[in-house]
Amino acid sequence: PKTLRLILGDQLNSNHSWFKTVDESVTYVMMEIRSETDYAKHHIQKVVGIFSAMQNFKNDLLVNNHKVIYIHLNDNNNLQSFEKNIKHLISEHNFKHFEYQLPDEYRVDLDLKNLCKSISISSAAVDSEHFFTSRNELGDFFEGKKIYLMESFYRAMRKKHNVMMEGDKPLTGQWNYDGENRKKLPNNHKPIAPLVFNNDVSEIYNEITKTDVKTIGTIDAKNFVWPINRKQSLELLDFFAEECLQLFGSYQDAMTPNEWSLYHSRISFSMNVKMISPKEVIDRCIEEWQKRPNEIEFNQLEGFVRQIIGWREYMRGIYWNKMPEFASMNFFNNQEKLPNWFWTGKTKMNCMKDAINQSLNYAYAHHIQRLMITGNFALLAGIHPDEVDAWYLGIYIDAFEWVEITNTRGMSQFADGGIVGTKPYVSSASYIDKMSHYCGSCFYKKALKTGDKACPFNSLYWNFYDRNEDKLGKNPRIGMMYNVWRKMKPEDKTALLEQADYYLKNINEL
Ligand code: FAD
Ligand code: DLZ
Ligand code: SF4
Q1: Distance 367 CA to ligand 1 centre (A)
Q2: Which residues contact 193 (CB under 8 A, 6 or more apart)?
Q3: By the 8 A CB rule, do 139 and 321 touch?
Q4: pLDDT of 179 above 80
Q5: Which ligand is in closest contact with the Cα of 372?
């Protein structure tokens, strides 16, 4: 029978078994649509990056003699939703069977299930053949457990997929080398210049600007830096393995002004739209380590592999196990709005200015900037998790809900009350100064707790613990902080709380 197969914008997996043979009766459909450009206010580079990668994928399918219908954003017959376009195609071309790959987002999953119920032809969903784990694997693994410990999941993944193992023991005898990582960049250290691509994406950019699609951030459409096809994705992976892996773990948590990528892989976009698979990524890095064991220490490799077969798969599993409830969790009952400068970078806080500006300019910030700068601030300031999610889901080129919301609402905002993390990731200026070179040139003074020049992180930090004592006071991992707080002189406490209060009331002026 004539079959229609849907490929979503984040399902650009050329190794999928769908494409192994050319089948005359099969037509693929890809579509640029407003339901997807408008569910968040996306960064312009994210929309352009996805459309470019989609169009390149479509071209490759055509070269390989597959039949493809590609609906452009401004096509006259574009009905702007998956459902409407597919129903229209089915009736227009008389398809007898419909297939799709399991989507990664809950909303789209429901939409497609409902679509299948509402059409009269047969339908089927197949795996996207990308992840190490299936949707429910983590849920089954932790069945009956209250705490979903990432480390135990990670070890099980290493064993199951025989990654860096010697029999049933971890290679080198040690599972996790986190303790050896996390160094500050030395003062005179000039990090490697990132590999960027000078893609000319002006045509796609111009198409988007013809519409009223709302976006954020900037773009140089003649020199678009992100990989937009599989070849570039593999080049970026090679660059990482050859030039960055050897220092990845060491400087994984380091931050310094005006350096946007350091030793990070920036491979998340390529992986999340499935131009390359997590298996290819870790295999390439393990191979590089085997080639140059004297130059690449094992801890650098282990730290990287853990992010991918550990954290990335873990977050996917949490998502499918906890949605849809997860999306409305708000453990601290936070209600505030994000300050305006999250959208402009116009703040005197040097760390925030740098992290936000680079996010606006590159649609990228690395993990510690997301977690311990912008996320840390949002949590200390009591911002509503919906506001925080909307910002993260829009601004990053790698942001798709399954991995955005678990990181943002879960890991960063602790709105899940401790599913993903065991305690909230918050800090005062001392941690930021320990890991970065931001404080030295900041308007605010990292050592001051009160007064005009006091670093806002300091008073907000204590204010956070104070106002959430009923929720956190009994957490054994935070007990020590409460002991310090309780022992503080009453007048010092009052001064800190008044300072925090002042900053919160004037948050747009920070
Ligand atoms: P590297 O540092 O080079 O790490 C390699 C890979 O490991 C990444 O590409 C990613 O696939 C994986 N990885 C690392 N940490 C995580 C993690 N915590 N969860 C899942 N995978 C991880 N990642 C996204 O892909 N999309 C998001 O929308 C996203 N939102 C985030 C929001 C917040 C508040 C935080 C704290 C983290 C978020 N992350 C997200 C996780 C992480 O920050 C990014 O994956 C990473 O910064 C991407 O850059 P990279 O490829 O250079 O990563
Ligand atoms: C993020 C995104 C955007 C901006 N646009 C499209 C699009 O026009 N067409 C499409 O198929 N996919 C797009 N995407 C990615 C989807 O939102 C993504 O496939 C779902 O969120 C499922 O993960
Ligand atoms: Fe950030 Fe405070 Fe340091 Fe300024 S002093 S860079 S606001 S931590």
Answers
A1: 6
A2: none
A3: yes
A4: no
A5: 1
Phi-psi region of 366 (alpha: psi -120 to 50; beta: other; left: phi over 0): beta
Q: Identify the residue whose tokens are 């210049």.
A: 193
Q: Specify whether the CB–CB gap between 504 and 382 falls below 8 A.
A: yes
Tokens representing 84 are 């409407």
Of 403, 235, 408, nearest to 316 by C-alpha is: 403
pLDDT in tens, 474-483: 888 888 899 9
| pLDDT band of 181, cuts 50, 70, 90 | confident
Contact 16, 128 (CB under 8 A): yes
For residue 102, give every residue at least 6 positions away whose Cβ sits within 8 Å of its Cβ, in sequence order, or none: 109, 125, 126, 127, 128, 135
Sort residue 36 into left (φ over 0), alpha (ψ -120 to 50) or beta: alpha
Say if ligand 2 is within 6 A of residue 105 CB: yes
CATH of region 137-322, choose from 1.25.40.80, 3.40.50.300, 1.10.357.10, 2.60.40.10: 1.25.40.80
pLDDT greater than 90 at residue 182: no
Q: Would you kindly state where each structural domain of the chain is located, as residue ranges?
A: 3-126, 137-322, 340-509
Rg for the chain (alpha carbons), in Å?
Answer: 24
Q: Is the CB of 439 under 6 A from ligand 3?
A: yes
Reference 193, options 275, 287, 260; nearest CA is: 260
63 Cβ contact partners less than 8 Å away, ≥ 6 residues apart: none
Ligand closest to the CA atom of residue 46: 2
Q: Which atom of ligand 2 is nearest to the CA of 73?
A: 8
The alpha carbon of 392 and the centre of ligand 1 are apart by a number of angstroms equal to 12
Q: Which of the four CATH numbers 2.102.10.10, 3.40.50.620, 1.10.10.920, 1.10.443.10 does domain 3-126 have?
A: 3.40.50.620
Q: Quote the mean pLDDT of the chain.
A: 96
Which of 10, 248, 307, 393 most suits a substitution to test ligand 1, by most atoms within 8 Å of the C-beta? 307
Q: Which fold has domain 340-509?
A: DNA Cyclobutane Dipyrimidine Photolyase, subunit A; domain 3 (1.10.579)
For the cut 90, the answer to whether the pLDDT of residue 384 exceeds it is yes
**C-alpha span between 67 and 482 (Å, rounded):** 64
Instruction: Determine if ligand 2 sits within 6 Å of the CB of residue 9.
Output: yes
Cβ-based neighbours of 458, under 8 Å, separated by 6 or more: 428, 429, 446, 448, 449, 496
